[in-house]
Design goal:
Elements: H1 10-29, H2 47-60, H3 65-94, H4 107-134, H5 138-143, E1 147-154, E2 159-161, E3 174-185, E4 191-203, H6 212-218, E5 233-241, E6 251-255, E7 262-265, H7 269-284, H8 290-301, H9 309-317, H10 328-339, H11 353-356, H12 361-379, H13 383-401, H14 407-421, H15 429-454, H16 459-483, E8 485-487, H17 490-514, H18 519-545, E9 550-552, H19 557-577, H20 581-596, H21 599-606, E10 615-617, E11 626-629, E12 635-638, H22 644-654, E13 658-659, E14 662-664, H23 669-672, H24 675-679, E15 683-684, E16 686-689, H25 696-708, E17 712-715, E18 721-724, E19 727-733, E20 751-756, E21 759-763, H26 769-777, E22 789-791, H27 802-808, E23 812-815, H28 828-836, E24 840-843, H29 844-847, E25 850-853, E26 860-863
Parallel strand pairs: 4-6, 12-14, 13-15, 14-16, 16-17, 21-22, 22-23, 23-24
Antiparallel strand pairs: 1-3, 1-5, 2-3, 3-4, 5-6, 5-7, 8-9, 10-11, 10-25, 11-12, 18-19, 19-20, 20-21, 25-26
């Protein structure tokens, strides 16, 4: 691309240079004197070198040294040839009268040479970083799964991994820590010095208070491993295993003794200060509502330790996960306070604190650099943080030198420098999404915003809508590769939270800065920030709970290409629709209906839920969640499944807004982990559970959720009878005798005999054969003969008592199981035995959600 001023006559060039000199001279003492058009067109010359370096880094990380050397040498030689030819052409052109330097040939050769040089540099950098993983003793030790004593320096914040529920109990909670191993001691006594990146995995049990009652108030105490700061050195005994995904770690260290970390080196002063600030922010937010308490540290400094799995899933479902990862938007908000809105960057900034305080441009740039450095230290050098800091540093340098060009070169420079510094970023999806989102905001968003304003859309709304749509258009294909799903609520959800992010971030940073010195002030600021933070969480939860919040999509690059083509087609159609406001409104309504899926309309279109349904079994994967109809919008919920989002979506589809009772048959996670989704936004009268309080952690979880929402918890026992509306039920298990101790949580399941409109339903929870036989011998045994509907025990497992199945002789047997589950549910033998008795057998893994209809002798069943 031509330099600024090329193609103009010399007189115009001199006039422009004089004008700029005057502008910069004037701006040195006072901001706000620049002309809006003081810079030339967008300079794209750095984009090809940046993209070439990015691609080369991604390819060369696994390449052999010979390939790296050959690529680097070949590119440098070719770049030298191109520059030699270019110099010769310029020399010959210089001898031609009337030909100016700006018109001389050879400028494409300069660009090509720059690309080749960047490719060579990227190849060398990637080759060296890739070799770091292959050198040293750790790879060989990992192949033997050796046990070592390692001294490692922590390089990132420890993070707690809470796996999703996939069975009766969640998988063990683990702390993941990225570190560099500095010293190794093997079993044979050898001491090895190295510097190798590893991932430490610490399986931890969250420590609880001694009594249940105190645990409800105090909650779990986190593992001491989570308190470790980057740059801390620890000594661990661990088994060395190969990395699972071949990423940027040479090995994985499975820590053998995870109780208390042995610290052998204190963190640096900068990290101690950052840790103090982050701890102060957490303390300042302790008194906030649960969502705000969890979300605010994530918005401000990327501290997501308090984010629950279901809240994290809600943010992913609505494409709001970027708000939990500190990115350029956080740094931009802080810099805007100093230098003013980014829209004024091509003039000399007219707003912000700096011009009001009379601070010069260069001093402003220095202050901005200090803020950027502090931002990276406190928020940690994650890919999005590094990209934001690098881009901001380049922009600040341009500000300090008086060359305020477009931010496109700044973004390209940031990408180039970062992939050369850390080639592993070239394979980071987070880095890719960050760059795509920033590029969308710099290229597409301004044009779309201008187009919307030309059609009389208010400026602020046009800017917000254009920014959200542009980022979604470029990022959606990559998100689809990661999640195999496309969010239909991403743009409106991002619009709804946009106005809340800035106040939450600014107030949160203010609380962060004041917490170490004035905690009462920090708590007041955090309380103010809690309102917008709570709004963001509410938007994410509400959007994720909509029945049509997203659609499944192929999770591959082919699927990403198809989505990109669909997006282009939609944009082309949208340009035509913008000329017809009425058609835009009609299309918006047509899109809104499948997303919201109002129950009356859904029933007409899909037939679900069927009119007059009596009992519904939600499709919540490998778990149980069922609903007994008790009137218009009212239902008794039996079990909550493993996923709050799925059960909430099911209840919304059924139109359930009032729940007189939530009955949790037992405390396995696949029956209770979805409780927050049941309680969300509904009137709940009470929660009833089994008296057997095992597993303890899940029983405490239920108590905490109930206490947070002011819902009472009672215990069920055999013989209890209750009624609501036309629905009545009797608890037939477990026995009221406290001396009867079940063999485990499954045998302590609450079993119900239900009557609804003349139908008799038996719900068995997860009862195993010993409890099933005891139930037959109990006083309720004779009442179980000839039921209409049987909710088969334990997801249709092979462990069923033939006597109980024979006594109940159901007409319809329903099984709740997850598709492709690893437990083999439902067991073919159980299904065959039920069918041999004349029962119709349906299961959610094959038939989806199920609903029972009919009255008396009339019995029907429908699926969604």
């Amino acid at each position: 691309m031509r330099e600024e001023g090329e193609g103009y006559d010399d007189r115009r060039d001199e006039g422009r240079r004089g004008t700029r000199a005057a502008v910069h001279a004037a701006s040195g003492g006072r901001l706000g004197a620049a002309h809006p058009r003081q810079e030339g067109p967008t300079d794209l010359r750095l984009v090809p070198p940046a993209l070439a370096a990015w691609a080369t880094s991604a390819v060369m990380l696994d390449a052999a040294p010979a390939w790296v050397t050959g690529t680097a040498v070949g590119c440098l030689v070719l770049a030298g040839v191109l520059m030699t030819l270019r110099v010769g052409r310029v020399s010959r052109a210089g001898r031609v009268p009337g030909v100016r330097t700006g018109d001389r040939p050879g400028w494409p050769a300069v660009t090509a040479a720059a690309v080749l040089v960047c490719v060579a540099a990227a190849a060398v950098s990637a080759g060296l970083h890739g070799a770091d993983l292959r050198r040293g003793p750790l790879p060989a030790l990992a192949e033997r799964y050796a046990t070592v004593i390692a001294e490692a320096e922590i390089t990132s914040d420890p993070r707690l991994v809470r796996p999703r529920v996939r069975g009766p109990a969640p998988a063990p909670t683990a702390v993941l820590i990225e570190a560099d191993v500095r010293r190794l001691e093997t079993r044979d006594g050898a001491t090895l010095v190295t510097r190798t990146p590893v991932l430490m995995v610490v399986d931890v049990e969250r420590r609880r208070s001694s009594s249940a009652s105190s645990a409800f108030s105090a909650g779990d105490r986190p593992s001491p491993w989570l308190a470790l700061l980057p740059s801390t050195r620890v000594r661990v005994t661990a088994r060395v295993v190969p990395p699972a995904d071949g990423g940027d770690t040479a090995a994985v260290l499975r820590v053998r003794d995870p109780k208390v970390p042995e610290v052998v080196g204190e963190p640096s002063a900068a990290q101690r200060l950052a840790g103090r600030l982050r701890a102060g922010l957490r303390e300042a937010t302790d008194g906030l509502a649960p969502d705000a308490r969890a979300l605010l540290p994530g918005l401000v400094v990327g501290d997501t330790a308090r984010i629950t799995p279901e809240l994290d899933e809600a943010f992913k479902e609505t494409d709001l996960a970027h708000t939990l990862a500190v990115s350029g938007s956080n740094l931009t908000i802080i810099l805007v306070l100093l230098v003013g809105p980014p829209g004024l960057a091509q003039r000399v900034e007219r707003r912000g604190l700096a011009p009001r305080l009379g601070i010069s441009l260069r001093t402003t740039a220095l202050l901005g650099g200090a803020l950027t450095l502090g931002f990276v230290i406190v928020c940690r050098p994650d890919p999005s943080v590094l990209r934001a800091a690098a881009c901001g540093a380049v922009a600040l340098l341009a500000l300090a030198t008086g060359r305020r060009r477009s931010l496109i070169p700044a973004l390209a420079t940031a990408v180039l420098l970062l992939v050369l510094y850390d080639p592993w970023l070239s394979r980071s999806y987070g880095f890719l999404l960050s760059v795509l989102a920033t590029g969308a905001l710099l290229t597409l968003a301004p044009r779309w915003s201008a187009a919307l304003r030309a059609r009389r859309v208010p400026p602020r709304l046009a800017e917000a809508l254009a920014a959200a749509a542009a980022a979604q258009a470029l990022c959606a294909p990559v998100v689809a590769v990661l999640s195999a799903r496309v969010s239909l609520v991403a743009v409106p959800c991002n619009l709804l939270v946009e106005f809340a992010i800035a106040p939450a971030t600014v107030l949160g940073f203010a609380a962060l800065a004041t917490a170490p010195w004035a905690m009462p002030v920090a708590k007041a600021l955090a309380w103010c920030a809690g309102w917008p933070a709570g709004w963001i969480a509410d938007v994410a939860r509400t959007g994720a709970a909509l029945p049509g919040a997203g659609v499944d999509w192929p999770g591959s690059w082919t699927g990403a290409a198809l989505l990109a083509l669909a997006t282009v087609a939609l944009l082309l159609a949208g340009r035509r629709l913008l000329r017809h406001p009425w058609w835009c409104g009609a299309c918006g309504v047509l899109l809104l209906l499948p997303v919201v899926q109002p129950p009356p309309l859904t029933r007409v279109v899909t037939g679900w839920p069927p009119p007059g349904w009596r009992f519904a079994m939600c499709d919540v994967g490998q778990g149980d969640a069922t609903v007994l109809a008790a009137g218009a919008g009212t239902g008794v919920v039996v079990d909550a499944g493993p996923d709050p989002v799925l059960v909430d979506r099911c209840l919304r589809t059924l139109g359930i807004t009032r729940i007189p009772l939530v009955l949790l048959t037992h405390f396995h996670a696949d029956h209770v982990a979805g409780l927050p989704g049941v309680l969300r936004g509904r009137q709940v009268g009470a929660i009833e559970t089994t008296a057997y309080q095992e597993p303890v952690d899940q029983a405490e979880f239920v108590q905490r959720e109930a206490a947070a929402r002011g819902v009472s918890v009672t215990r069920a026992a055999a013989g209890e009878e209750r009624r609501t509306g036309g629905l009545s039920w009797r608890v037939v298990w477990p026995p009221a005798d406290p001396t009867v101790v079940p063999e485990g949580p499954n045998d302590a399941s609450v079993a119900l005999l239900v009557r609804s409109a003349g139908l008799r339903l038996l719900l068995l929870g997860d009862l195993e054969p010993p409890a099933q036989r005891a139930l037959l011998r109990s006083p309720a045994g004779p009442l179980l003969a000839g039921v209409d509907v049987l909710k088969v025990a334990h997801h249709g497992s092979a462990y069923q008592d033939p006597g109980l199945l024979s006594r109940t002789a159901p007409r319809l047997a329903l099984i709740s199981a997850g598709a492709d589950n690893t437990y083999g549910h439902p067991a073919p033998g159980t299904v065959a035995a039920l069918r041999a008795m004349g029962a119709m057998v349906l299961s959610t893994d094959r038939d989806g959600a199920l609903a029972v209809t009919g009255e008396g002798a009339e019995l029907g069943v429908a699926g969604d």
